[in-house]
Design a protein that fits this description.
Elements (H helix, E strand, L loop, with lengths): L4 H8 L4 H13 L5 H8 L3 H16 L19 H14 L4 H10 L6 H10 L10 H13 L31 E4 L8 H7 L1 H8 L9 H13 L15 H6 L8 H6 L8 H17 L6 E10 L9 E4 L4 E13 L4 E9 L7 H13 L5 E3 L7 H9 L3 E5 L4 H8 L7 E5 L7 E10 L8 E7 L7 E5 L6 H8 L2 H13 L11 H24 L8 H9 L3 E5 L3 E6 L5 H7 L6 E3 L5 E7 L1
Parallel strand pairs: 2-6, 6-7, 13-15
Antiparallel strand pairs: 1-12, 2-4, 3-4, 4-5, 7-11, 8-9, 9-10, 10-11, 12-13, 14-15
Length: 599
């Protein structure tokens, strides 16, 4: 007999899927092998073997066992596109349309067919080539395609216009019965606060710039709305240009486009932004802080530039661990009650050390009172400025930089000079420390300054606090300085939610407007958290996700503007907060009274 081995391999090691399927089922039904050895022989899993067995049984029971081994070719089995477009192609050719014209016309009607298919259909009907057309005929065909008025074709109208309307206060339509839907109708929750604070009067007093199409208040509300909606950059606002509700929020028909929003800061060259900030703090402080704050935490935050700026100075950026071209900003936060109350981005390197004095002057001009306490770190200012604060009777607590000789001198002090204490703060419950209370001489500081060296704060070397207050204990110095951590938390919120670091600009005016808008947006979310029961400690990102990012319909009635929010699980908290509130008359919307409705 001839050798069988070379031919047997064809059956033992099948290559084609159909052949492997046949041998697998033959081994199961004819040879009676279990699934595991069959799977090992043909490189399958036991589950695949059982699946093929199940499918074959179903095909066998239907009387189609051989159909199970037929390889089906993929793709459509019939020509479905030709019958749908044949009549339109022939009609357009009769009107003098060339192949490319027919292709464009069908594309406008939502029927995307290739030029080769059009040519194939025309050849089947013997319509090869096109007679020479006159210039008038070619112009007519071109005009029909451009306008969409093509005989025999229905051009679908888009759900939204292709080009958004131009922002113009004169086009604002608040006629009775109008109703629009917005995916962020919850942004109207901030309107009662803005009206109560008198934002329209603030903008007027600050002398903010505006035009006939976009008044100053509408400009500011448009930019503030982007901050409240967690929008990263002004260059990314195009997706809001069709949302009429955001236009209504600002007293416009639609929000301004990217160019208008970006260029607005360059109109503010006469200190309008600083006057707006002062007016905001003056009017909002009694609402958010019934008691006038007397203690403040100050901190710097450099905003790095991501391009190649030539005019910017280098500032140390902690997140990068080095000095890079950036714009230095300064923030101040009231301690109790909490509120961001100062921001400045127009700071050069030579002016950086004077920022504590600038803030003291700012607060004195606004309230007639000087701050009682300032808390800041060692990079904030110089010893000479600390001396000026002492002469102005402003108490401060700051950190002193630790040199090797200074630490060696402290380390030689006997244990009896140290005082034991226990601090109790939210981050350090019942933490034992010990401190050394001394009076030291500082360069450019007239007279002795109090220094409190503290061990037990989690560092190997003692932390050195400097203060000009002689009345509080060393333990109170440590506890008071921990309040400065709150401004670091607020700056983290401003970076993560209000995207403070995303403003890549070389113009300080642009950055200064952005940081002031950040203060305004932070105050809006602080007010909302106070209104919602049990949400006082919520961060803006949580408030936005649970409350502000809520869709709804805004409907115009005779005297009212009704905001009907879509049903969400947190709506009862909003209803509880606004249940007994009188309707708010909105000055920039024709004194329409704002009311809320919950489904």
């Amino acid at each position: 007999m001839p050798p069988r081995e070379p031919y047997a391999q064809f059956f033992l090691e099948p290559k084609l899927p159909r052949h492997r399927r046949y041998e697998t089922l033959r081994a199961w039904f004819a040879d009676g092998l279990p699934a595991k050895p069959i799977a090992e022989r043909f490189g399958l899993s036991p589950f695949s073997v059982q699946s093929q067995v199940r499918d074959f049984k179903e095909a066998y029971d239907r009387g189609e066992p051989m159909a199970f081994f037929v390889e089906l070719s993929p793709g459509p089995k019939t020509d479905w596109k030709k019958p749908r477009v044949r009549e339109q192609i022939l009609r357009l050719r009769a009107r003098g349309y060339a192949d490319t014209d027919i292709h464009k016309a069908l594309g406008r009607a939502g029927r995307n067919v290739s030029v080769s298919l059009i040519d194939q259909i025309l050849r089947e009907k013997g319509l090869v080539g096109l007679r020479k057309r006159t210039a008038e005929e070619r112009q007519r065909v071109k005009a029909e395609i451009a306008s969409g008025a093509i005989p025999g074709l229905t051009i679908p109208q888009p759900a939204f216009p292709r080009i958004p309307a131009v922002a113009d206060v004169r086009d604002l339509d608040l006629s009775t019965g109008r109703s629009i839907h917005s995916r962020v109708a919850g942004v109207f929750l901030f309107v009662p606060f803005l009206v109560q604070a008198g934002l329209d009067e603030m903008v007027r007093q600050a002398g903010m710039a505006g035009t006939k199409m976009i008044p100053a208040l509408s400009y500011l509300l448009s930019l503030l709305g982007l901050k409240l909606l967690d929008k990263e950059r002004k260059s990314h606002i195009s997706d809001w240009n069709f949302d009429e509700a955001l236009g209504w929020l600002a007293g416009l028909n639609v929000p301004p486009k990217t160019t208008v929003a970006t260029d607005y800061s360059h109109r503010l060259v006469r200190g309008e932004t600083n006057r707006l900030l002062a007016a905001w703090v003056r009017h909002v402080q009694p609402i958010l802080c019934p008691l006038s704050p007397r203690a403040f935490a100050l901190d710097f935050h450099p905003i790095p530039h991501r391009g190649d700026p030539r005019a910017l100075e280098n500032h140390y950026v902690p997140s990068r661990g080095k000095a890079v071209p950036s714009i230095q900003t300064c923030f101040a936060r009231a301690i109790d009650p909490p509120m961001l109350c100062y921001a400045n981005a127009d700071i050069s390197r030579g002016e950086k050390d004077q920022m504590p004095l600038r803030f003291v002057q700012f607060w004195r001009n606004m309230t007639g009172l000087k701050p009682d306490w300032l808390y800041f770190d060692s990079r904030m200012t110089t010893y000479a400025v600390l001396d000026e604060l002492r002469q102005g009777s402003v108490h401060f607590i700051t950190i002193r930089r630790r040199g090797p000789s200074l630490l060696q001198a402290i380390g030689r002090r006997p244990a009896g000079d140290w005082t034991a204490a226990v601090i109790d703060t939210p981050q350090r419950r019942h933490q034992r420390i010990r401190y050394l209370d001394d009076r030291v001489r500082l360069r450019n500081y007239s007279g002795p300054c109090r220094q409190v060296a503290v061990e037990g704060l989690g560092r190997a070397a003692p932390t050195l606090f400097l203060t000009n207050n002689e009345d509080i204990s060393g333990r109170d110095v440590v506890v008071r300085y921990t309040h400065r951590n709150h401004i670091e938390n607020d700056l983290g919120i401003n970076i993560n939610f209000f995207h403070l670091d995303c403003l890549a600009s070389e113009a300080r005016l642009n950055v200064n407007l952005d940081v002031v808008l950040t203060v305004l947006a932070n105050g809006c979310y602080r007010w909302l958290s106070q209104r919602l029961k049990g949400c006082q400690t919520m961060e803006p990102k949580q408030l936005y996700r649970k409350f502000v990012e809520t869709g709804g319909h805004i409907t115009v009635h005779d005297q009212d503007l009704l905001v009907a929010l879509d049903r969400r699980s947190h709506n009862p908290l909003i209803a509880q907060a606004f249940l007994n509130q009188q309707p708010t008359a909105i000055p920039w919307l024709g004194q329409k009274r704002l009311r809320f409705q919950f489904k």
